[in-house]
């Protein structure tokens, strides 16, 4: 099992086994220390995920800002048209859950 689960040594394997045994025992006995430790681990994992999502959204927002600036520099657009586009975009994102294919949108405008 040491090789199967990629442990570095038998000592690491046995240490992990003992830790898991103790954790299982404490969970069965409803010890509050385990609940606190589990809660802390979940909070740390959630915090790490939130940071990763935030970084991804930041990169996305930067790219979106660049696209908007390019469009604004090259096209004069009426305010009413922007509001119609925003409404349509909100509906499209809700409908597709964010999986929008830019080429399909362009094809739709060019084929109209």
Percent helix: over 70%
Q: What low-confidence regions span 5 or more consecutive residues with pLDDT below 50? A: none
Q: What fraction strand?
A: under 5%
Please outline the major beta sheet.
none
| Distance N to C terminus | 63 Å
Class by SSE composition: mainly alpha
Rg, Å, rounded: 26 Å
Q: Kindly report the average pLDDT value.
A: 80
For the secondary structure, the number of strands is 0
The number of helical segments is: 4
Q: Helices and strands, in N-to-C order?
A: HHHH
Label the overall shape: elongated
Task: Report what the structure shows.
It is a single chain. The chain is elongated. The protein has helices at 10-28, 32-74, 79-96, 102-110. It is built from four helices and no strands. The protein is an all-alpha fold.
Descriptive terms for the model:
mainly alpha; 112 residues; single chain; elongated
Would you summarize the structure shown here?
The protein has 112 residues and is mostly helical. Helix content is 79%, strand content 0%.
């Amino acid at each position: 099992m040491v090789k199967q689960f990629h442990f570095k040594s038998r000592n690491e394997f046995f240490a992990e086994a003992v830790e898991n045994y103790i954790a299982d025992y404490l969970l069965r006995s409803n010890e509050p220390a385990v609940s606190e430790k589990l809660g802390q681990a979940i909070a740390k994992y959630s915090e790490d995920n939130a940071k990763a999502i935030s970084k991804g959204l930041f990169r996305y927002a930067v790219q979106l800002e660049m696209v908007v600036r390019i469009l604004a520099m090259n096209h004069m657009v009426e305010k009413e048209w922007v509001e119609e586009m925003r409404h349509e975009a909100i509906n499209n994102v809700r409908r597709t859950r964010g999986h929008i294919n830019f080429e399909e949108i362009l094809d739709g405008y060019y084929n109209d």
